[in-house]
Recover the amino acids of this structure.
């Protein structure tokens, strides 16, 4: 981002902040709009968009710091990770991110960001306090999916064109293993107990499950829906339910969320959402699931108890990432 | 299903090298042709057309290979227009080439495929669009990573039907490529039940840079009333001078206007922007359809070696033609190969110079097996008998 653009973004966000922002009165879901260069803030109680903040170019990955004091945004085409004050919507500063950051994951100690540099086949590790690059690790082509074990010891980068999950030891910042997955892996999630790693493969149409201790493949999950071509069932974003019993899988152009029972590996439900569903976020009280629907430009709200969609919320163009902000 | 890190790589059978990394040899063989003269002075085909795509794919698959212990090598054999193509091909085969990525006219391609040493090879046709190569002249050892003319024509027919622009007229040039594309268009319009109201032959040899505005209105004046005018000008000779000079105000399609293409620099969705970026960084120009054909061939080899765990050409061919094969081709739907004629199934972007207008198969064109098979020659109508697939 040029200084001029930065200033412009800053002044615009200040103006918006004055009119719209304030301390969160209710739990919120923050959604990046990839083709609008904005973030939409959704009130979890009223299910209305309460604020829209400008960001850098092509915002995709988004996550709150673990203490919820800062929001990190991958501004892919600005080649920066931006740090936003969620109280005001103001961009505080950029972090050095490497080129074309797409997704990232924050370490459990809230200090390091592991960033996938899609165009450079690199995972960049940034210290969010010193704002310095700590390490750059060569991975496969088009890195995207980023996961970190609950104990912070293993970081996973998946590479879309190399079709692998790269296991990175966070103490040495070295790759300790590479496991082949199906074509075009998109997302990596550890189970809450840290024992399993789930990796979605968009073109392969599968989710592979690995034993974290041995890196052995435990199972591979496929999807099937009547009247939808198998090649349209393209798993991308995933979230574990907080109790670790279920995984919700976004199926991209199939416009559905699959619900997978972790114990039996069975797909128990398919939930219709908007078009080209990318990623998911639970409300902080875990009663609602929010999905970003890229092509329809909206967010579907799913009632987790009944597994039914309850509302569609219009946001910006091509919503992509989502992250939850609790009130406290 | 595959446990790569624990499984020994003993199944890799590549002759010669017993070092730690298993060698996989890929040969690119190109028959250069002297570009035919065209009216405009502006456009010259890039000298590395096709080859550049193979090189990008090689670096794409090399990373997977590096992690799995496969070392890919790309040998490039470029045969000048006046040199002996078959002798060069023979020499490559004698040297051990068995995975061949070929850019050559149909006659050269078939002569190569029929060489005794090529019987056990897998040959990828990356550039010749002729339907005959997928039909009566098909070869069991030749797969096709560039769309056939009928696939492109069917993409355009689906678009015309979707728009309900079903009264069409066509102008076609004097070259064999133009006649072949025009034939494919006529057959496709019949297949989809669309009427072709009239045709006109481009015969002018005037210099259109100066007189298009005078000649083209007269040339198109006698065509019957139509919704869209199809231009068959596969060399890019006269077609560019038709737009805005027609007698009636009508959109163009085919070789000009909205163009069904196997690939285009304007394709950006489904991660294509990353491939376009990698290509531009490497070749310092836009990625064209011949580059994509060569890219897809090398990428398919890499995908098959990775998944099938072998570099044996016969086993790779079997895997590539199987239901398991899925290639991430940046076109929104996984790419695969037709078991009855070796044609790669792929979506066909319908593009202008600046944007993707739509992508075929268009929504609503259904098929019992794969919607991609609504484009081109399907199993019940194939005349290819070399693949042993029962109709």
């Amino acid at each position: 981002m040029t200084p001029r653009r930065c200033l412009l973004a800053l002044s615009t966000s200040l103006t918006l902040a004055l009119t719209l922002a304030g301390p969160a009165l209710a739990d919120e879901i923050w959604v990046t709009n990839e083709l609008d260069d904005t973030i939409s803030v959704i009130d979890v109680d009223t299910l209305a968009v309460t604020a829209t903040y400008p960001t850098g170019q092509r915002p995709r990955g988004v996550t709150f710091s673990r203490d919820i004091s800062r929001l990190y945004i991958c501004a892919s085409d600005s080649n920066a990770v931006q740090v936003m004050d969620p109280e005001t919507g103001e961009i505080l500063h950029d972090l050095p991110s490497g080129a074309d950051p797409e997704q990232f994951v924050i370490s459990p100690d809230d200090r390091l960001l592991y960033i996938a540099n899609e165009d450079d086949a690199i995972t960049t590790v940034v210290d969010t306090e010193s704002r310095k690059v700590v390490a750059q690790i060569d991975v496969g082509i088009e890195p995207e999916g980023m996961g970190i074990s609950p104990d912070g010891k293993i970081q996973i980068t998946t590479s879309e064109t190399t079709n692998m999950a790269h296991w990175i030891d966070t103490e040495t910042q070295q790759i300790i293993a590479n496991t082949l997955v199906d074509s075009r892996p998109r997302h990596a999630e550890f189970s809450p107990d840290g024992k399993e790693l789930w990796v979605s493969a968009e073109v392969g149409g599968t989710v592979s499950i690995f034993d974290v201790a041995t890196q052995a493949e435990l199972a591979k999950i496929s999807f099937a829906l009547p009247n939808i071509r198998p090649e349209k069932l393209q798993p991308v974003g995933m979230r574990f339910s907080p109790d670790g019993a279920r995984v919700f899988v976004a199926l991209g152009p199939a416009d559905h969320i699959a619900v997978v029972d972790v114990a039996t590996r069975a797909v128990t439900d398919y939930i219709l959402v908007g078009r080209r569903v990318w990623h998911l976020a639970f409300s902080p009280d875990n009663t609602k699931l929010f999905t970003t629907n890229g092509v329809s430009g909206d967010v579907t709200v799913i009632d987790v108890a009944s597994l039914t969609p309850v509302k569609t919320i219009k946001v910006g163009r091509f919503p992509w990432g989502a992250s939850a902000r609790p009130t406290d | 299903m595959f446990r790569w890190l624990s499984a020994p790589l003993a199944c890799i059978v590549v002759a010669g090298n017993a070092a730690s990394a298993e060698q996989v040899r890929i040969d690119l063989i190109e028959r250069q042709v002297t570009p035919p003269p065209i009216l405009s002075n502006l456009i010259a085909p890039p000298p590395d057309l096709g080859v550049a795509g193979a090189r990008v794919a090689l670096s794409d698959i090399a990373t997977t290979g590096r992690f799995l212990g496969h070392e890919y090598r790309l040998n490039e054999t470029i045969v000048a227009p006046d040199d002996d193509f078959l002798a060069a091909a023979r020499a490559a085969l004698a040297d051990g080439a068995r995975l061949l990525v070929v850019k050559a006219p149909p006659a050269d391609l078939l002569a190569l495929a029929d060489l005794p040493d090529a019987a056990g090879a897998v040959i990828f046709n990356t550039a010749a669009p002729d339907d005959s190569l997928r039909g009566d002249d098909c070869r069991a050892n030749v797969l096709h990573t560039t769309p056939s003319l009928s696939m492109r024509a069917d993409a355009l027919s689906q678009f015309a039907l979707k728009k309900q622009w079903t009264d069409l007229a066509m102008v076609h040039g004097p070259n064999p490529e133009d006649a072949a594309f025009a034939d494919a268009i006529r057959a496709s319009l019949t297949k989809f039940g669309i009427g072709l109201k009239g045709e006109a032959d481009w015969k002018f040899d005037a210099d259109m840079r100066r007189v298009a505005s005078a000649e083209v209105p007269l040339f198109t004046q006698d065509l019957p009333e139509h919704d869209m005018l199809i231009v068959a000008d596969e060399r890019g000779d006269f077609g560019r001078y038709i737009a805005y000079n027609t007698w009636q105000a009508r959109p163009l399609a085919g070789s000009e206007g909205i163009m069904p293409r196997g690939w285009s620099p304007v394709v950006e969705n489904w991660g294509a922007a990353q491939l376009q970026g990698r290509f531009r960084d490497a070749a310092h120009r836009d990625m064209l359809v011949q580059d994509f054909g060569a890219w897809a061939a090398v990428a398919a080899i890499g995908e098959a070696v990775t998944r099938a765990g072998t570099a044996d050409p016969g086993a790779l061919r079997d895997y590539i033609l199987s239901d398991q094969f899925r290639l991430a081709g940046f076109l929104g739907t996984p790419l695969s190969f037709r078991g009855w004629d070796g044609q790669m199934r792929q979506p066909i972007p319908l593009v202008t110079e600046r944007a993707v207008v739509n992508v075929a198969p268009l929504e609503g064109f259904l098929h019992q097996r794969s919607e991609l098979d609504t484009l081109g020659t399907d199993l019940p109508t194939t005349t290819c008998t070399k693949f042993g697939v029962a109709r």
